[in-house]
Design goal:
Strand order of the largest sheet: 2-9-6-1-5-3-4
Strand content: 15-25%
Radius of gyration: 19 Å
Largest sheet: 7 strands, mixed
Mean pLDDT: 87
Structural class: alpha/beta
Helix content: 25-40%
Length: 298
């Protein structure tokens, strides 16, 4: 018996209020807006935690982060969503490039195919992805980020789906909204040149390591430009999701496919004096988008 296909898309650091249908003015996220309109959208979805490890532990196991050996890794005491679906006949695959969700932290359990850009055998061609190449051009060659550009992730997912167009559960996680903010050419603001992008990302890197903003470290203009770059990355991911779904419908039966889109957490943009994300419980960190699209949904 053919099962409902399941596609779970998660976006690192995506604040709910940066989606047009929830709060942001203007056509910032037309593809996500369209999915929200056609499917079921939640404007008051709250993440279990303000950072990756705790929120994904909960998302994959329906358990609280502090249970079952804590949230530094997905322990064997927890049953995962992928394990349950695999037992029920699904073919399962995951594609991401977040070190905190790697195979070494237990997140590969239940997945027939698991790409994490670090321990995957096929990772080497993708390590030199857009982030690395562009960072080198900006003089940021020592950036320790293994992140894979969303467009490259799409290609891997589509290649896999062409071989497994039915009875699948796919988890796809995008890292592009996470700093460093390196928008592709078509999404880069004209008001911010490459040197400025380099400077801002160096400041973000320093702030991220310290977990605080020192006095006079970030000017009002810096903050304005950081917010602009963040918005550019949100627009880019929305565009990539639209492109993915356009290609997916040529491969799988969309009338038998459910799509869930959400985020692990948001990000601070100095609403309460902080930048990026840390262990705080403000709306900008905990309120995330949640969209469910599929057949027969009201």
């Amino acid at each position: 018996m053919e099962k409902r296909n399941l596609l779970l898309i998660t976006i690192d650091c995506l604040r709910a209020d940066h989606l047009s249908f929830i709060g942001r003015r203007g056509p910032n996220t037309p593809n996500l807006d369209a999915l929200a309109k056609e499917g079921v959208s939640f404007t008051q979805a709250i993440s279990v935690g303000p950072e990756t490890s705790s929120s994904f532990i909960a998302l994959h196991s329906s358990t609280y982060p502090l249970m079952f050996d804590g949230y530094l890794r997905l322990s064997n005491y927890r049953t995962t969503l992928a394990e349950v679906l695999k037992r029920h006949g699904y073919v399962t695959a995951a594609f991401h490039s977040n070190p905190f969700l790697s195979r070494s932290r237990g997140f590969s359990r239940g997945f027939d195919t698991f790409y994490d850009s670090i321990t995957s055998v096929k990772s080497k061609p993708f390590i030199l992805n857009f982030f690395t190449r562009f960072a080198k051009r900006l003089g940021l060659s020592k950036y320790p980020y293994p992140y894979v550009r969303a467009s490259a992730m799409n290609k891997m997912v589509l290649t896999w789906l062409r071989k497994h167009p039915k009875n699948f559960f796919v988890w796809l996680h995008y890292m592009d909204v996470h700093h460093p903010y390196l928008p592709p050419k078509d999404f880069k603001p004209k008001s911010i040149d490459n040197d400025r992008i380099k400077l801002l990302n160096e400041k973000l890197k320093s702030i991220g390591k310290k977990g605080r903003i020192d006095e006079d470290e970030l000017s009002s203009k810096d903050l304005e430009d950081v917010r602009t770059l963040y918005g550019c990355m949100v627009k880019y991911v929305d565009h990539v999701i639209g492109a993915l779904l356009e290609d997916v419908q040529e491969v799988v039966d969309m009338g038998n496919t459910f799509i869930v889109i959400t985020a692990d957490h948001g990000i601070e943009l100095c609403e309460h004096g902080g930048l990026l994300h840390s262990t705080k419980l403000y709306d900008e960190l905990l309120k995330v988008p949640l969209i469910i699209w599929g057949p027969d949904l009201r």
